[in-house]
Every structure is written in C-alpha cells, then in structure tokens.
Amino acid sequence: MFPSIPIVFFFIITFIISATLLLFLRPKKDDQKHPPGPPALPVIGNLHMLGNLPHRTLESLSKTYGPVMSLKLGQVLTIIVSSSEAAESFLKTHDVVFSGRPKLEASKYMSYGSKGLVFSEYGPYWRNMRKVCTLQLLSVSKVESFSGLREREVELAVKSIKEVGKVCGVVMNLSEVVENVMEEIVYKMVLGCSKDDEFDLKGLIQDGMRVTGAFNAGDYVPWLAPFDLQGLRRNFKKTSRALDQVVEKIIKQHEQGSNVQNDKNHKDFIDILLSLMHQPIDPYDEHSHVIDRTNIKAIVLDMIAASFETSATVVEWALSELIRNPRVMEKLQDELANVVGMSKLVEESDLAKLSYLDIVIKETLRLYPPGPLVPRESTEDATINGYYIKKNTRIILNIWAIGRDSKVWSQNAEEFYPERFLNSNLDFRGYDFRFIPFGSGRRGCPGINLGLITVKLVVAQLVHCFSWELPCNMTPGDLDMSEKFGLTIPRAKNLLAVPTYRLHNEAN
What we know:
Helices cover 47% and strands 8% of the residues. The longest helix has 32 residues, at 293-324. The chain has helices at 7-24, 54-65, 84-93, 105-110, 124-137, 140-145, 147-164, 174-191, 201-213, 217-220, 232-256, 269-276, 293-324, 326-339, 355-367, 399-402, 406-409, 448-465; strands at 68-73, 76-81, 172-173, 373-377, 382-384, 387-389, 394-398, 466-469, 496-501. The protein is an alpha+beta fold. It contains 18 helices and nine strands.
C-alpha cells in the first residue's frame, strides 16, 4: 500500500522531479467539464491521501466532492463512483464503455499476464473465457453436483468443534475454523484433492490477494516502477512462483491420474479444464484462442481466490455481526430450530426455506461486500452526468460506500439490521444498483451461485449447531470490528469465541 513507501526517500525524489516539471511543463488548456475533486500534488497527485483503508477515505472524500469525483492518482486520472445513481450510469447506461480493466503490474505476475478471467481486458478473449467458466465450472447444475462434498466438509468441521468444545470454556479461533473448512471445500471442488501439508496454498492465496489489492505506486507513477519502493514486485514474483509450482504439481498429478479424489467419477474443475485443453475456446470461431496450460493455471487461481478468500471473509463478518447482535442471532437460531429441527444438521435443500438467513446474508453483503473497490477502465470517450470522461480513464466503483449510503439506507446505514430487507425484492445480482455487492453488468461476478450456497451453508450450520459467546467476559460491544484492506476486506483481528453444542439426538 502506498503509505509503506520509504517516505523521506520518496518525497526527496518527488520534490526534484516536481520542480523540474513545473519549470518546463505547462498544463494544456482543457475546456471540457470534469468531475470535481481535491487539489493534487505534483507527480504523486492524490496518492498520499488514500491511507491504509482507501475505501473509507474515498467515501469520506465523496461527501465533500460528490458521488462522481476525480482524483489524480500519480499520473493517472481516476474517477471514483460512490452512489447507486452514478453506478447505474456507468454500469447500465454505458456498461460497454466501462467494461475494461486497467493493466496493473500485479496482473502480469499473479494472473499469468492477465490470462485468467478477473484481470483480462474486455474483448473476444474475455468473453470466451467467461463463457468457459460460466458453462463448464459455475453453472447451476455444476454447483449442485458438489452439494454432497460441501455438506460433508461442513459436517466434519462441526464434529471437530464439538469435540474441542467438550472442554468447558475453550476459546476457538472461529476465523481459522471458517478458513479451514472453506479451504477443504475449494480444494476438492477445484483441485480434486485435500489440503497438502507440503505447501500452504491458503497462505499463498491470502498473500496474493493482499499484495494485488495494494495501491502500487509504480502503476500510477510510471517512472517510479523500476525502483519498486514498496517491494511489491518482489512479493509478486515470489508469490507467483510459489503458486505456479503448486498448481503445476497438481495439474501433473491429474495428468498422471494420481490425484486423490473422493469420487473417481466426479470431475473437479482441473479435470474439466484439462479435457478442454488444445481446443478453441469458441469452437464456432476459427480464429478463437486455443486453451493452453497457462490459461488453465490462470483460471484455476482465479477460481481458488474467488471461491476461498471472498467466501471466508463474508462468513467471518456474518458470524461477527451475529455474535455482536444477540437479538439477530436468536431469531436466526429460532428459524433454524423451526425449519430444520434440533435433531439434525442443516442440508443444502433446507437453505431455500430459511428466509431470515437470507436477509442476514444480504445485510452482511451490504456492509461487507466481497470486493470493496471495483476497478474499471473506459474503452472510449463518454459523457456521464454532464462530465467528460476520456478513453482509458480509470474508474473505481466504491461498492463499500454504495452499501452504506444513508440516502438509500436511512440514517442507520451503519447498523447491522437484516429486517431492512423484509418485504423487499432487492436482489444482489446487479439489477438494482442500490445493492451491488457482486458488481453488475458484463464484469459482474459469475460465481454468485457457488459463493452464496457455500456461505449460507457454513453460517447456517455453525449457528444451528452451536451457541457462541465472546471470551474473557467480553460484551458484544467490546468486539473489535476493524478491517484490513486488500482485494477483500477481512477482519483485522481473528474472531475468537466459545462454542456450546445445541443439538440433541442427531442422526449424524
């Protein structure tokens, strides 16, 4: 993140370069109307203002400069969008124009040169890769085919917690529990294998999400890139090499038929992708890109990161808010008792009948969207709300701010209050711009079904099977709810709680 740059060294260089530029360069006259924004410093622009939690900083600035605001991030003009009305203009009215992705140094290393789905440029390649992922990996039927796997892994987690919880007052790291169960589910769906102690794939993914989400000064001040003052390039290279070694090893195991699977007849994501290798992405287009090994690796890493880190983060925040709001926890447990019963575990077939669980998850997504800041880039000139936006302008959609907009969500917008979704047809699939936790338009998240089913099952099971109390005589108001910034916004501190088993006479 920008504040980690050695400040003294950076500003000495900045002063020298700034003085030179001010002496020899004069800005060109521009008669076009641009979005308002704070004054920018020479060379670094407004980068110094972002702080450790940019989503919060940008929300605060938008209250002064408006929901469509311009910042000069280094040498890059960037438009910040912070309201649902403005988001609709960008993502619905002009969706095609703003479907581009900026080229960031992170994508060069962490996505094999933008060969996956998340970082690739808008165009035929991206459209075809999305089609492959949607039809072959993320379709409703494919997601449903893994239901037994998900239920088994969550059941194993419940049994483990129950066993540990036999010791009265034992404090559990609930964040670690959630991450571990998500890790196993994702490994078996995507990789077809269990966790391997030889490598820390979870840690590598988390490191990758952290460094990729950082504001890299080299992306915004090009002449700083060779210096790598933040050390991000070194981290990119180190993490990407480690990830490549892990994925390459697993692909070779699949090719040799030595991967460990629960069901030899059940294809995991790598099996499916390997069956498509050397085939054109679009068989009806003779010029279509042919899927190769690099494409497979890039897609696999996209799927793991999107399935694991984002889902684990949402579950942790949901459990945090439930523990902090005993009223909501009690209502959800009452629903689970009435619908599922107190003698059995939750099954995925029960989820559709749990209406209060549904609004608890919606409220969690409103306050803690999987990706707080969504980057786009304009592919041609456009005029939005009377403002001229030039081709190749960066756009950042502050999804976190949109979910907390008091003009939409009333004065208690910061409060966790699931009932605000009662008698509401607000959906999170990107059709209503008041609520777009997964983005919207062409670049909206294609894995919504997979993510939601997993999140709901884990939350429902942990709340149904256990009562959770804070340790050390902490009250709900004492719970630290601070976050840290990256591609996602996970808890800054692990969630610790004491479990008490609730079920009786269960068949399991």
